[in-house]
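Data availability (excerpt). The following record was deposited with the supplementary files.
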Amino acid sequence: MRTKRAIARIHRKVANQRDDFQHKLTAGWVAKYGLIATEALKVKNMTARGGSRKAGLNRAMLDVGIGDILRKLAYKAAEAGTRLVEVPTSKVKPSQTCPLCLRQEKKLLSQRVHQCPCGCEMPRDQAAALVMLRWALDPWEPGGGEGLTGPVELRNPDHAAIAVGRG
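Predicted structure:
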């Protein structure tokens, strides 16, 4: 009985630490950024059974509590007046799209540098974040090739923007 209580206390402590981390992280983002672009993640689908090939991803996503982070981010952004945009990644395909010319090209996950015939070359995650920010500022129809049409006013011009993804 004593062991069960000790284990329950440890689990409660870890849960409280995770919750505290999530609140501090999301509050920091909302205070710092006027626009936050996130991937429209289906956490339940991403952590579903998939054998050993998904064990690492499942554990990492559940340890961080990405679903809770997104929920906290949504209500804090709404309260603060920060613009939160969920990018439909199944349509936009940020990791497959060039942030400059919007050309889509399938890449293997092992390919960690984005290289495009237009001359754009940068780390793949950075390129994906820029694609998400670009879409958040001015949504386009994937495959259309059109880009930004003009300046976009943020809630506070002093605030920057951030893209939050799987990384």
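Summary of structural features: The two ends are 42 Å apart (CA to CA).
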